[in-house]
Amino acid sequence: MMRTKWSLAIHHEDRGEGSLISEDHFVHFADVHATMKRNKGKAFVVRIPKTAKPMEIQAFHNLKKLGYVIDAR
What pLDDT, in 10s, does the model give residues 6-51? Predict the structure, then answer.
């Protein structure tokens, strides 16, 4: 069974060259969300896995509505 992998890159808010702070991979969306909460105010680039559940995708879109700066790929 293949595990879902979320990729989360955290950038400084300006997203200019050299703005990457860190990049991590997660199996669970809850871990992605927790990391984003700890780094609120930063810009995020998230790679959503093809095997993501509809509820996870909806939760991701809800974060955008809450003001998180997110670029999904």
Answer: 999 999 987 667 789 999 999 999 999 999 999 989 999 999 998 8
In whole angstroms, give the CA distance from residue 4 to residue 66: 25
Is the CA virtual torsion 64, 70, 71, 72 positive or negative?
negative
42 in Cβ contact with 9 (< 8 Å): no
Sketch the domain layout of the chain as residue ranges.
6-72
| Structure-token pair, residue 27 | 């199996």
- DSSP letters, the chain, are -PPP-EEEEEE-TT--TT-EEEEEEESSHHHHHHHHHHTBTBEEEEE--TT--HHHHHHHHHHHHTT-EEEE-
pTM: 0.84
